[in-house]
Amino acid sequence: MALNNMKRIYSILALAILCGAVMLTACKKEDKSARLMAEFEELEKNIEEQFDDDITSEQADSLMNIYVSKAFALQQAEPQSYAAYEILGNIYFLLDLEQKAQAFAVLNLDSLESHRLQRYYDAFLAEQKTAVGMPYTDFTAYAASGDAVSISSLVGQKDLLLIDFWASWCGPCRRSMPTIKELLAAHSDHLAVVGISVDEDEEAWLRTVSDLGLTWLQLRDTSDEGSKTYGITSIPHTVLINHDGTILAHNPTPAEIIAFIGE
């Protein structure tokens, strides 16, 4: 009886030691995760303080590069910690495709929904499928008349097709329209453009098309099919497609578009 009691005591002690070790490890991970979040918040504060009215675009770009580099390193520092999920949620829109792949690689994909990251992962997968060099993916949007128009019906009409995702409430989108007008005026023999509005308000969309004098084909993505297909999480966003259906660029500059035209 005494021997059995001793065995029971040793078993309980061993279990307690094991549990203590597990709890200690978990606490250490939580402590490190908390420190990472504190470092991230301090980084955000420092970067924000350096943005002022006198900052140049070059200085702003440099600061953003520093921010992304340091924040990404923090996200990678403790895989599976809550910091890895939280930081990614804050910097996702600033990462390139390769960084996004690395960011998700350290996470438990089954936990994305609980961290409100599932839609970002879905967008990332869509981005991979529609990356530069990949064949375009077709989708359907709707004209003001209600007629359905597929992207496949537009590809190949000219040497290049520029898909412009925009909305009436998007200031940067509206400011980009004069540049598109100039490109079309100078290169209409080689370039076609289709505007894909993500507006929920049809009247606001049509009014803006009229106010801005947008003469190229305008469609509305009423179900977000196009945005989801191309993994678009912010606008304006443009996609340049070759006549054979190959994706040449995302968000190309006017100079890059002209270079693709080859004039």
Give a structural overview.
By secondary structure, the protein is α/β, with parallel strands linked by helices. It has two domains: 2-129, no CATH class; 140-261, Glutaredoxin, CATH 3.40.30. It has nine helices and seven strands. The protein has helices at residues 2-50, 57-77, 82-91, 97-105, 118-129, 171-187, 202-211, 225-229, 254-261; strands spanning 140-142, 148-150, 160-166, 191-197, 217-220, 237-242, 247-250. The strands form two sheets. The protein has a five-stranded mixed beta sheet with strand order 5-4-3-6-7. Helix 1 packs antiparallel against helix 2 (57-77) and helix 1 (2-50) runs parallel beside helix 3 (82-91). The radius of gyration is 25 Å and the shape is globular.
Which features characterize this protein?
7 strands, 9 helices, 13% strand, Glutaredoxin, two-stranded antiparallel sheet, alpha/beta, globular, 263 residues, five-stranded mixed β-sheet
From the spread of the alpha carbons, the general shape counts as globular
Which residues form runs of ≥5 with pLDDT under 50? 12-27
Share in β-strands? 5-15%
Number of domains: 2
Q: What is the residue-averaged pLDDT?
A: 88
What is the helical fraction, as a range of percent? Answer: 40-55%
- Tally the beta strands: 7
Class per helix and strand makeup: alpha/beta
End-to-end distance: 96 Å
Main sheet strand line-up:
5-4-3-6-7
